[in-house]
Amino acid sequence: MAALFTAASSQYLSNAAPPLNATGYGFSVGAWINLATTGTQRCIFALTDTATTNNFLELRVLSTNILSIGAAAGGTTISTDLTTAITANSWVFVLGRFANSIRRSVSMMTSDGLVQSVSPSVTSRAPAGLDMLTIGGFKTSAAAAEFWDGLIGELWYCNLDIWPDNNAVPSDSFVRKLAYGGVFAIPHANTAVYEYHSYFDDVVTPEIGQDYNSGPLQTWVNNNGVTLGTHPPLPYWYARPGQSKRKLVV
Amino acid sequence: MATTVQTVYGSSTAVTISTSGLASDASLVAGRAGTVVTATGAVDYLVSGIITVSSATAPAAGKQVEIWTFSQVSTGYFTGMSTSYTGTDANATPTQKAIMKLLQAVPLAATTSSVYSWGPFSIAQANGGIMPDGFGIYIVQNSCSALNGASGSQITQYKTITFTSS
User: Fold this and answer.
1) Is A82 exposed, middle or buried (0-12, 13-18, 19+ CB in 10 A)?
2) Which of A193, A239, B55, B73 is in the most buried spot, having the most CB atoms within 10 Å?
3) pLDDT (mean) for A177-196
4) CA-based angle A94:B107:B102, to the nearest 5?
5) Which H or E run includes A81?
6) What's the N-to-C CA distance of chain B in angstroms?
7) Residue B129 class from Cβ within 10 Å (0-12 exposed, 13-18 middle, 19+ buried)?
8) Which domains does chain A have, with CATH numbers?
């Protein structure tokens, strides 16, 4: 199963004490997404300041159905965007890289095999006071908005730029490896994962093998009843947390 | 006295699946399903193969070949497959591809006649650790042209796995 969000019901997940630092950088986030309805700006993952409306880092899909990173630091938002639109009801692997205040980049792999990345941004945005982590919704000092409509599964975020060169785009094969092998199949990243949620069995209650916390257990709030839907089809060799050996058939 | 358990690999056996000249489908659903392999007591089946793209037209950028496995649920019923599929080698359009088991999505280079080896993959592991009593292989591609039709250019095969003790 994956987390199933209904935008009309204003459903989203929130964590008011995120493990990421208050200035955000550097971290990376990945997930499989499936958007039920297009044409509206929707949030996948956001780290925001709940005292203002314009301090945030956000991985989102724009109203043009383009995958994007938005960054604001008390002023105008800088948007770092792909060029190929996401289509409705199709699984897409998305990767957001928030390397530092200048370099932000986004990649995706659509289910028909297309991998696309955009060159990292060149404009600084250094927000402060980031104190709220949300999935499937965007929460600042204003009312929550940009609700996701559809599915999000296999979500993780880690405390580094997952591609070693923050001034370059990741290789296509690396994005594919992340998508089909999972973040725990990437040796330099699997020890840097803050959290991983498959959303296979539950939305906010941790399940052994399906969720992972690197530190203290994170408290997620299920706002307005996010439920479970279908899961992205992944190969059996997709690496789960703590999975260091395969099952022996005897 | 200690007992030594050894893995015994069966000989390579072809899976009957006619992917020679398999047409491209942009939606990655109209593919080819092979004849169901009936399990005969082996604890696992390792499947592998070779795919060769067209010699005339190079794949477009960002295209792939997908290899999936499905199981025989009961006579005439197969995981995710349409009811028109009878268990023998045929063009097939699954009704619920997402509930079949993905083995590999092979990314294609924009080069004619490129050869890709895939696998081996464990059918038992793909099914949670236990062999189903029958399984099939389903292959679909969106390279924008038919797969290579030359003899020997497409191979899908399996080896049985058993254990022996001494």
Assistant:
1) buried
2) A193
3) 93
4) 75
5) strand A78-85
6) 10
7) middle
8) 2-229 (2.60.120.200)
Confidence of residue B79 (pLDDT cuts 50, 70, 90): very high
Each residue's pLDDT tens digit, A131-153? 999 999 999 999 999 999 999 99
Q: Would you state the pLDDT for residue A248?
A: 53
- Give residue A242's pLDDT: 74
A113 touching chain B per CB within 8 A: yes
- Residue B76 is predicted with a pLDDT of 87
Average pLDDT, rounded, for chain A: 94
Tell me, yes or no, if A217 comes closer than 8 A to chain B by beta carbon.
no
CA distance A201 to A209: 10
> Is B28's CB within 8 Å of A172's CB?
no
Strands (E), B4-154: 5-9, 13-14, 31-33, 37-38, 44-52, 64-74, 77-78, 90-92, 101-107, 115-122, 134-141
Which residues sit opposite A46 in a β-bridge?
A58, A134
How is residue A244 annotated by DSSP? Answer: -
Sign for the pseudo-dihedral over CA of B74, B75, B81, B83: negative
pTM here is: 0.92
Average pLDDT, chain B: 95
CB A249 within 8 A of CB A21: no
Q: N- to C-terminal Cα distance for chain A?
A: 29
Shortest distance between the Cα of B142 and any Cα of chain A, in A, equals 8
Confidence at residue A190, expressed as pLDDT on a 0 to 100 scale: 83
- Concatenated DSSP letters for A93-160? EEEEEE-SSS-EEEEEEETTS-EEE-PPP-S--------EEEESSB-SSS--B----EEEEEEEEESS
With an 8 Å Cβ cutoff, are B125 and A173 in contact?
no
C-alpha distances out from residue B66 to A64, B97, B104, Å = 29, 11, 6
